[in-house]
């Protein structure tokens, strides 16, 4: 199929370039019709909010704030429910409270949420019991069921992605501004969790301290609006260019193009080719942009990415999300950071400790060791401390549910437990307890 639907008015350079990891739609006309509809739909976010996030990310790049970016590896259409969205949000709010209080740093909160429906894959096909079918590429592309019918890419799924994103974002906005995210709720976020988990109990002790601090401030007459709601932003991988491009709009204030499918989008490790369509697309939009950098990234590539995506060297515009693997971060990251810093660019450096640490357990489950995740974050902090640069944040795959997908953590999950609640649509996520453990440990590292 072509990602070059004629109906678009947003002609741009990316359309003539090779686009990796795009679905092979059997019906080009059906794709064109969906894209035309998407082009007419209202934006999911406002350009002004993207600018606000860019300003927040500029503080991260300058070393004045910390990014917490997290959520599902792959959102799924059948999981757009109040319970699941609330659980994810609660986990992120708890992590953020830990970081803000224990590390005393402003936290920029960004979900992998309300649009994270598309997955780049290592292989185009999957084989089970001798049967070969196209690989599952996320609910925005095809179905996860292992049947020939489910695996056919269906452009109607792009429309469902838009509606699922809109419903999710609507609830997220309700939760974050309607009282649920009020700091007075620090205990409520933990209520269902505290009794049976060590990290829950540790959190509860911290929540009591926050409560005391709030009471003290209130007694002093200070009760700022910032305590009653939370700035929360959405993000996802800008993978499907037909969708992302259909959701670009010209901002009436500035005349610039924004991808209004999310506040921030990132370009993945598999699609960041310098001469490819994804980088060209990202260079044309004004949103804050992330780029994943794996262990093979050369300093020259990083510098060219800066040239393409942040030619004005604007702090907050570009975030490098490194995902090297625990065994390589101390070796690969220093040169990249050194050369980028020497170039004068002020990017935000963020650690994704998940994607370089995946392995297959004997049971066949894809998993990650909590200790490897932690070790990669430690390596990230060590490198930045050594170079005098700012460890700007973490980017994590997590869920608010008590799944058993990653091994280890304080409430330890063993390899033999993986089958119990292995629910991810793609890669293994930290569960709530592991996420909180990570937040406490990161707070300690940041403070140190
Ligand atoms: O989340 C990232 C990728 O989509 C995922 O790691 C790819 O997994 P695969 O190697 O099973 O295709
Ligand atoms: C695919 C992802 O990561 P990466 O591009 O780093 O492999 C992801 O974050 O979902």
TrEMBL record:
It catalyses: D-erythrose 4-phosphate + phosphoenolpyruvate + H2O = 7-phospho-2-dehydro-3-deoxy-D-arabino-heptonate + phosphate. Pathway: Metabolic intermediate biosynthesis; chorismate biosynthesis; chorismate from D-erythrose 4-phosphate and phosphoenolpyruvate: step 1/7. Phosphoenolpyruvate binds at residues 112, 269-270, 292, 323. Its cofactor is Mn(2+); Co(2+); Cd(2+). Its EC number is 2.5.1.54. It is an enzyme of class 2 (transferase). It comes from the Bacteria. InterPro entries: Aldolase_TIM, DAHP_synth_2. Binds 1 divalent cation per subunit. The enzyme is active with manganese, cobalt or cadmium ions. Residues 1-20 are annotated as: Disordered. The keyword NAD does not apply. Residues 1-12 have a biased composition (Polar residues). Keywords: Amino-acid biosynthesis, Aromatic amino acid biosynthesis, Cadmium, Cobalt, Manganese, Transferase. One of its GO terms (molecular function) is 3-deoxy-7-phosphoheptulonate synthase activity. Pfam families: DAHP_synth_2 (PF01474). Mn(2+) binds at residues 73, 355, 397, 427. Gene3D superfamilies: Aldolase class I. Belongs to the class-II DAHP synthase family. This is Phospho-2-dehydro-3-deoxyheptonate aldolase. It comes from Streptomyces hainanensis.
